[in-house]
């Protein structure tokens, strides 16, 4: 078990604050959410907000009564600039169901295994460029955004050169930065066009991102290029009705996969490199496993299977620094949850950040220990105690993609380079869509 004071980057607030909504909404998860299973507050005349960290209740909301607890009203408004409302992420009811069925084969494990050479190649390019630079101070948060972006473009449309990467990523940062304000507006019942700091920048960036994504599809001309995800989506048919996606739906989903598909994985990889820079013993154990499994050769489908400890490190990293801090639902009507009345319109927050640090579920919750994910330890836990990818019918469709990608990238980078912390650097969180570090994550990187 490895400890470091930086593993708790902020103190939960006893009282929620509007400022925290914009700066770091995780601060507003009440302290009881880390100790108990349900906590709530009611502000002025707004419907109550309920924070769940009880795995049984979370299972009830996400799975057993998923139909009764659809996605909340706030998240779609907060995400509407960066996630197309017509795509899988925000679609509802039958429109969601058929898209999910149609897209599922593209994310099946066997199809994804064909993408492992892309994961390795993107990571190896980064590793070799760091090795050539010798010892240097690197912002691994920015670097991982670049690697994960190359991965997603190649996996989804088969070409990483098709867009101006730096411009696209900068536009994405601008578009995402409005998330917290939009979240606050929605929480206060205000419409999305109320101006706020960064409003114009956010809209211009969103327009650029949508235009570029449309250009990517048009440039492909609907051609089936083989194994990439766009080809699979173009060929996809709803198994029940035979319906295919029209251009509008293809665009919506491509936009979703590109943004949802790299931001979260990049954030998880960056925190993982920072954690293993803190915990050098774990870093050495990782490197030893990778050398034993893959030697100096490529890391592909067979090697990934053998990288058992690497996977555990990623899992434990996503426990302590979950890339997504919360997901929300809303009951269709007044109801009872865990013996407690819940009003219609209440915001039911599955507080993933607090769930993963809850004292009742995780012994020594602030310690970093990949062995929590050894099979026996994992089996002894409630399945809904650990939800980096959500749960129930709307569980992340990209989960296997992300796990294969992150395992390959982490293994490739740690085999090639040694990561050490920068003296005096304290991380700060800037959660918008994912829990990004506010001023990046600088590390000292040198050839291994
Ligand atoms: C470490 C990486 C990732 C994390 C932590 C993550 C996390 C999540 C979570 C928590 C949800 C559930 C949202 C909810 O229930 O409200 C979700 C849904 C989703 N994710 Fe991911 N995700 C990751 C990677 C990806 C990738 C690689 C893709 C696609 C290429 C992707 C596409 C989606 C989509 C389309 C949904 C909506 C699914 C639906 O509603 O049916 N994600 N993700």
TrEMBL record:
Domain of life: Bacteria
Residues that coordinate or bind heme: 396
Protein keywords: Heme, Iron, Metal-binding, Monooxygenase, Oxidoreductase
SUPFAM superfamilies reported for this sequence: Cytochrome P450
InterPro entries: Cyt_P450 (IPR001128), Cyt_P450_CS (IPR017972), Cyt_P450_E_grp-I (IPR002401), Cyt_P450_sf (IPR036396), Cytochrome_P450_monoxygenase (IPR050121)
Cofactor(s) required, per the database record: heme
Gene Ontology terms for molecular function: heme binding; iron ion binding; monooxygenase activity; oxidoreductase activity, acting on paired donors, with incorporation or reduction of molecular oxygen
Keyword Heme annotated: yes
Keyword Secreted: no
Gene3D superfamilies assigned: Cytochrome P450 (1.10.630.10)
Family: Belongs to the cytochrome P450 family.
Name used for this protein in its record: Cytochrome P450
Source species: Methylocystis parvus
